[in-house]
Amino acid sequence: MADAVEEPQLHNGTASSESQTDQHPTSEPLSDHDPKVTEAIPETKPEELQSEVTDEKVDEVQSEVTDLKPEEEVQSEANDAKPEELEPVVVVDAKPELAHVNLSPEENQIRSTEADQGTSQPVMKKEDEGNRTFTMRELLSELKSDEGDGTPRSTVSPYSRESASQAAENNPAMDLINRIQVNDEEGRSRQRVLAFAARKYASAIERNPDDHDALYNWALILQESADNVSPDSVSPSKDDLLEEACKKYDEATRLCPTLYDAYYNWAIAISDRAKMRGRTKEAEELWQQATNNYEKAVQLNWNSSQALNNWGLALQELSQIVPAREKEKVVRTAISKFRAAIRLQFDFHRAIYNLGTVLYGLAEDTLRTGGSGNGKDIPPGELYSQSAIYIAAAHSLKPSYSVYSSALRLVRSMLPLPHLKVGYLTAPPVGNSLAPHSDWKRTEFELNHERLLQVLKPEAREMGRNLSGKAETMSTNVEKKTVKVNITEIVSVTTCADLTLPPGAGLCIDTVHGPVYLVADSWEALDGWLDAIRLVYTIYARGKSDVLAGIITA
Question: Would 305 disulfide with which of 23, 345, 418, 477, CB 3.0-4.6 Å?
Fold first, then answer.
């Protein structure tokens, strides 16, 4: 690891085809597609490491994550996300000199109803078709065809256009929709369709105030309309539309507490409002509300990597505002959410990148403050190295993404080149995992793009004393068998709790030749090994080992 620190700037990145969200090295949003992101086996803002995060709207009409909308891939790999800028410092070695760099998470919000799908697009429900859900794109397309020559088909609503207009009359939400002014023709056309849909849902709610589907879809219309409004618009403002959308989501979830999509998109709308308020007390309250809604979304859909990624991003934002005494706890919670997202989808490169950026920020804070002083703090140098591992992995999975490339240039020197990870594990004698605990030895291991290898140092033994009476030693050249796991032979990598293992955090690497058991010094150290090995395997499985090899051996 280098001992010097570079002072390049990390950029908050927003990919045109991939959305991103805010946070260190630039956190990346959850998706590369329309509001949704998908999980898989593994996939950060240099000159500002950007955390890529995505808050994707379930039913968003956007094709890549943006602003907590599916990031290119977060908005998971879903939409273009806007990274939030964090200013982590890059350090090499335990006491590297740090240069302040802006590492901001990439923000990408994925709006989606099905967080686990490759794309999260806002889902809307058509009243005349039961509970069948439609993506916002499908709905817009159908509404356009319904309009035809300007007269919607009667099947859209049992009410006439006149009754729909009456239902919308004196409605604050419809008033906001009707006052939206869009400059370009494409935007005007899109807004006409959104306004038509808004009238439809206003009419549906007029008929049945307890129609949670109509309330949810209306909220989506308001949220989509907010994206159609320019940032400097005053009448109506983007915030006005998002606030009204939040009210509709609130009503919908009150009527149907199990509406996962509503909690998810509601959290994205709240996050968008929080971003407009900087680092103020009001923003803190909004970010807290967003994290609460992401938590509810995850409780309803525990396998949503997108919601977990966005939850981590919201926590990362919150950590920049809360009092210093609370910051570390919030940051560590964010780390746990990104890690959970990755373990659901190993190639979720946005969450991988975002985890790298939040670790980078934690390293910077630890270096600046000296840590909590409880003796359990990970040294800043180790945190920087961990950050570099995730950023390198994200780049390997998505080498064409400029945000990752820039971040990698900033942190590459923090890797234990020519390896990806170097550390200690306790291992049994080769081929004898049932050996007595006294025979297990704590030794150094090296991980690169091809294998995990145990490194045995030559043993020194005393040979006698020279004429001066000093003991002379010489190293033995006896070749010993070492533990070696080829990446291509891995079947699975899991934690292992077994009484036959020595005390510590157990690790089981199942290979085509049988299991290999190792023990990490702590459960926190085990997390690092688990992720690193799984990421290297995922990179191999995705056919990107040559990219990783170029990073660590070049």
Answer: 345
Res 132 pLDDT > 60? no
Exposure string of 38-72, with b = 16+ CB inside 10 Å and e = fewer, is bbbbbbbbbbbbbbbbbbbbbbbbbbbbbbbbbbb
Contact 265, 218 (CB under 8 A): no
Residue 381 has pLDDT above 80, yes or no: yes
Give the three-state DSSP class for 280.
coil
* Helix 281-300, helix 305-319: angle, nearest 10: 160
- Within 10 angstroms of residue 175's Cβ, the number of other Cβ atoms is 13
Integer CA distances (angstroms), 201 to 97, 156, 212, in order: 58, 10, 11
Task: Report phi then psi at 520, rounded to 5.
Answer: -85, 160
Across the chain, what does the average pLDDT equal? 74
Tokens of 361: 């920020």
pLDDT of amino acid 138: 55
Percentage of the residues of the chain whose pLDDT score is greater than 70: 64
Cβ(69)–Cβ(55) below 8 Å: yes
* Gyration radius of the chain over CA positions: 26
Could you please report the per-residue DSSP string of 191-213? HHHHHHHHHHHHHHHHH-TT-HH
What burial letters (b/e) apply to 92-130, b meaning 16+ CB within 10 Å?
bbeebebeebbbbbbbbbbbbbbbbbbbbbbbbbbbeee
Least confident segment among 184-188, 198-202, 276-280: 184-188
Residues of 461-488 as b/e, b for ≥16 C-beta within 10 angstroms? eeeeeeeeeeeeeeeeeeeeeebebebe
Half-sphere exposure of 382 (CA within 13 A, CB side): 11
Which H or E element spans position 100? strand 99-100
pLDDT score of 142: 56
pLDDT in tens, 133-164: 445 555 556 555 555 444 333 333 333 444 44
**Which own/partner contact pairs does 495-500 have at CB distance under 8 Å and 24+ positions apart?**
495/526, 495/530, 500/433, 500/434
Terminal alpha carbon distance of the chain: 15
Instruction: For residues 171-187, give the mean pLDDT.
Output: 77
For 548, the enclosing helix (H) or strand (E) is: helix 545-553
Burial class (CB in 10 A: 0-12, 13-18, 19+), 258: exposed
Among 541, 546, 509, residue whose Cα is nearest residue 526: 509
Contact 369, 392 (CB under 8 A): no
Residue recorded with tokens 């023990």:
519
H helical segments located in 301-438: 305-319, 324-344, 349-369, 380-397, 402-411
pLDDT category at 394 given cuts 50, 70, 90 is very high
For CA atoms 209, 214, 216, 222, give the dihedral sign: negative
